[in-house]
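Section 4.2 – Deliverable D4.2 (structural model, holo form)

The reporting period included a commitment to supply a predicted holo structure for the target in complex with nicotinamide-adenine-dinucleotide. Inputs used:
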Amino acid sequence: MKKALVTGAGGFIAHHLVRRLKKEGYWVRGVDIKYPEYSPSAADEFKILDLRHPKNCEEALSPPGSFDEVYQLAADMGGMGFIHSADCEIMRNSALVNINMIFAAATLGIKHYFFSSSVCVYRDMKPGEPEMKEEEAYPAQPDNEYGWEKLYAERMALAYGKRYDMKIRIARFQNCYGPEGTWDGGREKAPAAICRKVAQTADGGTIEVWGDGSAVRSYTYVEDMVDGVWRLMHSELEGPTNIGNPEYVTVQELVDTVIQISGKKIRVKYIPGPVGVQSRNFSNDKIYKTGWRARFKLLDGIRLTYPWIEEQVRKTAKI
Ligand code: NAD
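Output (structure tokens):
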């Protein structure tokens, strides 16, 4: 039986990844500074450890020789509202986790290491620009500090991989959404925030949305993302690899989709707020070599996500 360590397993994507690894027959240890919020982890063992500290990274991997694969998804992370207000925390906390985890993994003999990067490593784009490939992250011009930290962590993982003969696999995720993702509290991303606002608003009411609705994004349903991680990890693809739904939509289209699924009539008022980049368009040619395809259109994914967020809103009596 293969053994995997999943870090950040109390968080959204890693929680789903643990389930997938269990389905694939793995023994899994999850590590995080918190337990998953909405349902128990499927991990065989779950340790609460702050991975900013080298000793805790060693403990996560102990005893040496225990793990065939490490999936590093721990990060101080959130949507644009968080990214634009917590530069220092993101750069310090996530960098410490990444520095200490890759060092512990390399020196304790891990041979297969996954790192969750982001398309935030790329510069902003204009609507209609041709697809960007992975190598076009350079010359580097990320739009925010979160992207710079990811770029640094990618390079560090690759440097350790070379020195210690580790197989490094790096995914650059586009926006990911789905049930059991953060939906309130300030760290939620656009799809969850819009689902929450619509769920909290009575039929005929108005929601406020940051920006003017014209920003272009791709939203990847969590099951597709986890499938991409799985395929990438078990491929021979070296270097960073984009993973994202090829269906690009405007924020306005995202909002319309959520409203459609809710069955309500809702008006939208666009207000100033931290929107982030104007446009995205990334090549998936590399991940497609693994046979990966996004199976969930935005409408399908929102159909599965909106009812879950509506239920959370109802449970916390915020309706
Ligand atoms: P998340 O915030 O739900 O999960 C991250 C987890 O890391 C959290 O549970 C958090 O408690 C944990 N963590 C933070 N600091 C820690 C520490 N010091 N020690 C141990 N654990 C710590 O985020 P997510 O959406 O599941 O993202 C997972 C990974 O994917 C992250 O690296 C993120 O940057 C990347 N990513 C996510 C998206 C997205 O749209 N969700 C997009 C691009 C990249």
